[in-house]
């Protein structure tokens, strides 16, 4: 019975962990799309500033110096857009250069972002056919099997008969 329970636990964790590479791929695709769109906005702003004889900082300073609340707000909005572009570009570079273990260790950071939450909301499970997916599934099976086997053994301890006890009959 213990082996059956441990096997079920192993399969459950194998199935769960085998999905991580697919989640990481879907997250990376969404992140790449966001970076691409922010790049277009950033480059367009820089071109417009250059056409006006300004660099980015001078153009933003002109927005912020305006007495018009709308223009000052646009300047703040563009500053936030450039900061987000820099942050997401850096994240994408780190993810693309990370190995399988590094990506797994970064999972909490993925889920703590707007893109991570939206990826999880729209996540589509996939059968792992890559070596990475198979390794995660195998690791998940072994870990799940060992954990549930240990728990089953621990729970069953009080109910086990002790072997080697001498019985006296009359």
Structural notes for this entry:
The structure is a single chain. With 170 residues, this protein is mostly helical. It has one domain (2-156). Helix content is 78%, strand content 0%. It has helices spanning 2-18, 20-51, 56-65, 69-96, 100-105, 107-111, 114-121, 131-156. Helix 2 (20-51) packs across helix 7. It starts with a helix and ends in a 14-residue tail after the last helix. 16% of the residues are buried. The mean pLDDT is 84.
Beta-strand share of residues: under 5%
Rg result: 27 Å
- What about the largest sheet? none
Number of beta-strand segments: 0
Continuous helix count: 8
Low-pLDDT residue intervals, each spanning 5 or more residues: none
**Which range best describes the helical content: under 10%, 10-25%, 25-40%, 40-55%, 55-70% or over 70%?**
over 70%
N-to-C span: 35 Å
Shape: elongated
Structural class: mainly alpha
Query: What is the string of helix and strand elements?
Result: HHHHHHHH
Count up the domains.
Answer: 1
Keywords: Membrane, Transmembrane, Transmembrane helix
Transmembrane segments: 134-156
InterPro entries: DUF2937
Pfam families: DUF2937
How does the SSE layout of this entry go?
Elements: H1 2-18, H2 20-51, H3 56-65, H4 69-96, H5 100-105, H6 107-111, H7 114-121, H8 131-156
Helix pairs in contact: 1-8, 2-4, 2-7, 3-4
Key terms:
mainly alpha; 8 helices; transmembrane helix; membrane; 170 residues; single chain; elongated; DUF2937 family protein
Give a quick precis of the structure.
The protein has 170 residues and is an all-alpha fold.
């Amino acid at each position: 019975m213990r082996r059956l329970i441990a096997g079920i636990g192993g399969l459950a964790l194998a199935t769960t962990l085998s999905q991580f590479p697919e989640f990481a791929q879907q997250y990376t695709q969404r992140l790449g799309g966001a970076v691409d769109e922010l790049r277009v906005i950033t480059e367009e702003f820089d071109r417009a500033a250059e056409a006006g004889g300004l660099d980015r900082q001078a153009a933003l300073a002109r927005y912020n110096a305006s007495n018009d609340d709308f223009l000052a707000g646009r300047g703040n909005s563009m500053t936030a857009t450039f900061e987000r572009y820099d942050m997401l570009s850096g994240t994408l570079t780190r993810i693309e250069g990370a190995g399988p273990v590094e990506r797994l260790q970064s999972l909490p950071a993925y889920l703590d972002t707007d893109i991570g939450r939206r990826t999880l909301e729209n996540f589509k499970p996939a059968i792992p056919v890559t070596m990475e997916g198979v390794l995660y599934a195998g690791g998940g099976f072994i870990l799940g099997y060992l954990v549930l086997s240990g728990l089953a053994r621990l729970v069953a301890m009080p109910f086990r008969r002790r072997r080697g006890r001498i019985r006296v009959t009359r």
